[in-house]
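Cross-check.
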Amino acid sequence: LTFKSIYNIIMKKSVKIRKIIFEILYEIYKRNNNFEEGYKNKTKSTSLNYQETSMIYNIVLNSMRYNLFIIEILKKYLKKKTSNKVKILLVSAITQILYLDFKDYAVTNDTVEVAKIKKLNPGLINSLLKNLIKNKNSINKREIEKQSIPIWFSKALGKLKININSFFENICQEPSLHIVFKNKKYFKNFKEDHFKTTDISAFIKTRKQIPNIANFHEGHWWVQDFASMLPIYLCPELKFKNILDMCSAPGGKAFQLISLTNTVNLNDISLKRIKILKDNLNRLNFKCKITNYNALNILENIKFDVVILDSPCSGVGTIRRNPEILFKKNSPNFNLLIKNQEKLINKASKLLKKNGVLIYMVCSFLYEETKDIKIKFLKNNKNFSQYYFNLKNHNKLKHFIDKDGDFFCIPNNYNGYMIDGFYSVKFIRHD
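Predicted model, tokenized:
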């Protein structure tokens, strides 16, 4: 056995876990990885039980959610310039002490041990954490200065004219679990404690692992955020149509469309995502044709009644689920994303019959990916006009439709439950 392997055997388990947490966070920051990639890279050669996995998920995700608040705290406690590695290790420790209520001494001792292993100034980390713990009751845990927010995101928030502190406090909350049913009958017979959102959907009140929720294995429902299910829900005309879903995996909108007795053709560029889509279809007992094209290369010889384009985007609407968006060193590549969104929506327009309907969606609330795409599309495609969502019998949902008739919401609180940010606009072809 090497010295390293002997050391790993005798290293305290909680130190090992906090070392993994630090490594995941640093990999996300430096390499622009998402959380799942970082997690797999750093845990593939380890054997972790459910409790340990849950601890890693909890600390990593919340460290990224609370990162901007902690930056403000560190300004007061970190007097000398230090490396990003030290800051990330401190962010993880402060998250546990101030926001997750872990035992102060356990976090401090383990973090100092990780600092020793990684040669990250353990003396500084030890004294800073002890000083912070001594003053923890007087620390403002909910303060953000505008200059601490990444410039690209600060500009986006400025256009929305919202309270920055309340926005960030809101997105630090854990996502709520929302499910959509195949039909009203399945929903009516559902026995779990829930909060009804529509006649076919609800938030689950008691936190559970998804496969343990009633009727999961029977395939009565699927998981889908409330905001992202509403655009299709507000299109009652989508029945008995021939529909193409251009970027369909993992399938939420597709399942809605299939449930409405449409013929739905599914496509996705990613084989990995298609596997998830197929698993979901099998559980729900749905059958569909699936293709694996780059959506820009879909043949134009077949025309559809409806084309759904849930376009690749920055994903900022899902920031509560994917807090790495603001934690990464680099911003999303907006030039590439927007160019691709413009190409995809123009491609979608060529796949429609006369009087066909095009629905554009993104899990974003940035104007460049939402309103600007719509304006450019209508300017360059005079044979299309906007086709408005139907709010008949849905008065409670009218605040999701803005003054332009678009579906538009930011990550928000809905009756005490957390929903994602989402945008959608609908067009009709005239020639």
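The chain has a mean pLDDT of 94. The chain is about 45% helix and 15% strand. Passed to J.P. for a second look.
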